[in-house]
Amino acid sequence: MKKFTVQRSKKKGLAPGTLVHIGEKHAARVRITTVEFNETTWKVREAVDAAECATFTPDSAVRWVDVAGIHSVDVIAGIGAKFGIHPLVLEDILNTGQRPKLETWNTYTYIVLKMLRYDATKNEISSEQVSIVLGKDTVISFREKDGDEFHPIVGRIANESSKMRSMGADYLAYALIDAIVDNYFAVLEQLGDNIERLEEEMLAAPDRETAKKIHYLKRELIFIRQSGWPLREVVSALERGESPQVHEPSQVYLRDLYDHVIQIIETIELFRDMLSGMIDIYLSSINNRMNEVMKLLTIITTIFIPISFIAGVYGMNFDFMPGIHMRYGYYAAVAIMIAIALLMVAYFRKKKWF
Description:
Blueprint: E1 31-37, E2 42-47, H1 50-53, E3 62-68, H2 73-83, H3 87-94, E4 101-104, E5 109-119, E6 124-134, E7 138-143, H4 151-158, H5 169-204, H6 208-239, H7 248-313, H8 329-350
Parallel strand pairs: 3-7
Antiparallel strand pairs: 1-2, 1-3, 4-5, 5-6, 6-7
Helix pairs in contact: 2-3, 5-6, 5-7, 6-7, 7-8
């Protein structure tokens, strides 16, 4: 079953700013990729250690350091030392249970987000913490594992006519956040397809397995909501200019990104209402099915009440009873019972009780 929190017991008793990785290890090794570009040139290379990733070409306008794999405390501490990142920020980077948030420091802005992915083979949604440090001309992204979500951004940097080449580091940070937000739409689309299929199943023949599927989808939606709602606060703060590293040309794109986040939240709430309604429909269908069974049993019982009465009366051991010594008395009694049953069935049908 999916966990909504991570174990923080490793930090018990330690001083603030102590660097300890909290969470699962998703990468075999830490992979550091540096991208440097300006309006005329660009280059990408892999760095071996923190010292190498902090070395840049003098004429580079924007520098992007992408760190895939945050389980190595030494690597994260080395990068923090080279770029002057506060130990408390490094502590949050290593703690994968952070809530999406934005913090402004003297020379940089720290952003925490959740990257969502849908695994079609396992039919489940996974989450990954992404930390972004936005400086004057430098963006450092920290990811738990190496994925392909940021590959299109590298392709846009490689394109000479791309807006990315003429904008600053704040626009690059916007592009990274936008890529993360786009993943939310992909996950929600898949979740919407699953809800539609479940609706069709409910209308056909709901059973206990249907209830399990509703409960599972509701947990997945809560998982998405836990990451999506704080995302609005982060993008709103950037759009309002609370970060000194974000300049006016990029705020236009952040306003558009804020609209996307609102759309995501509205979709989450819509799916939430749909699942709540499906639970009510499931319970109603189960109650209706039980009522139909009870109705059928009641009708059968009602039909057999007069028949049982006649059989009971003629089952008494008295010598002198009407029809006891008649040659066709048995057949007459059976015929009367059948006639009563048919009359009652006809009456129930006329009343549309079944």
